[in-house]
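FORM 7B: Structural annotation worksheet

SECTION A. Query
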Amino acid sequence: MKLCASILLAAIASANAFSASPIANKASLSRSTSVLNASKNKDKIASRSKWAEARGYCTATTDAPADAAAAGLMTNDEGLEYVR
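SECTION B. Predicted structure
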């Protein structure tokens, strides 16, 4: 009898685990009304660019071919670069 009662209670408890939970209220599912227009990303890029320029890091170099030759980069007949 005790075994049947414990099995019955376990079955009832496990049935709750598979039942549908109530849906969240509509206020939590609504979309945000603020539009960022990627302003945070633009600010971040500007900040990082300013930081890099202040430390001498520059991504746009005008003497790139001279640097490539100094680094040992070669270009094959198909236009692919490789290290000498």
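SECTION C. Observations
The mean pLDDT is 74. The two ends are 84 Å apart (CA to CA).

SECTION D. Sign-off
Analyst initials: ____
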